[in-house]
Amino acid sequence: MTTETSDAVAVQDLVVTRARRPVLRGLSFRMPVGSVTGLLGPSGCGKTTLIRAIVGVQRIKSGSVTVLGLPSGSAALRARLGYVTQSPSVYDDLTIRQNVRYFGAVYGVSKAAVDRTIRDVGLVEHADRLVDQLSGGQRARASLACALVAEPDLLVLDEPTVGLDPLLRRDLWDHFRGLADAGTTLLVSSHVMDEADRCDRLLLLREGRLLADQPPAELRAVTGADNLEAAFLELVLATERGETVETVTAASEVEV
Ligand SMILES: Nc1ncnc2c1ncn2[C@@H]1O[C@H](COP(=O)(O)OP(=O)(O)OP(=O)(O)O)[C@@H](O)[C@H]1O
Questions:
Q1: Model-level pTM?
Q2: Ligand 1 pocket, 45 CB below 6 A?
Q3: Complex ipTM > 0.90
Q4: Which of 122, 158, 205, 244 has an alpha carbon within 20 to 30 A of 142's alpha carbon?
């Protein structure tokens, strides 16, 4: 597999061990620019480890991870990459607006951009409240706003919708789609399947291996399952039976 300029991320034969145990066991895939990729799989399968490798904070044993044409972790990527971890990383003793303004100031963004971002994550009414007075879902959205405000080229979101009600989740996914349409590439991890249909491509990870790398509709078609939960289970069972299922579609074959 070669890296193409249309790839925001290209991962080749990636192997990662943690505490001497293999966690990622030889992954290869690509994420086209302007696509939304869902990273799915059971707890402990390696999603966060893969995300860490892409954002450049994970030591890798072998293979390569190329992000926006540069090796992951390159200093030049810092301003081009937004990463929202599972635990919200915002300052408790500042308001939402102060937090977003602070992260925005690092990249020289305007006050209007700060206000727009707060609106995009549905926090206008709470903008001047201290973060330590917010609910879990509000904190998560404040953290998301801090990553969005700099308008990164690649946005990596680790379980961004945990604890959010269905309406907010729908609004956020609409926003993610809008960002992708404008050229941002998104990687969104989750261990729930119901949001996966909003993605252009899905990476299904199990025990450090890719079980599938293709659009949701194709995944349902090749497994004969009518929902992604069932498709995932069918893939697991087929793998255990030693069967081969056609679950990789080259990124270049998929229109985004
Ligand atoms: N700091 C660490 N040191 C050693 N092993 C770790 C460390 N963090 C995670 N692991 C192990 O690496 C494996 C993958 O963990 P990872 O956090 O990547 O999974 P995940 O798919 O993101 O899980 P979850 O959905 O529960 O967040 C697990 O077996 C986990 O126990």
A1: 0.89
A2: yes
A3: yes
A4: 205
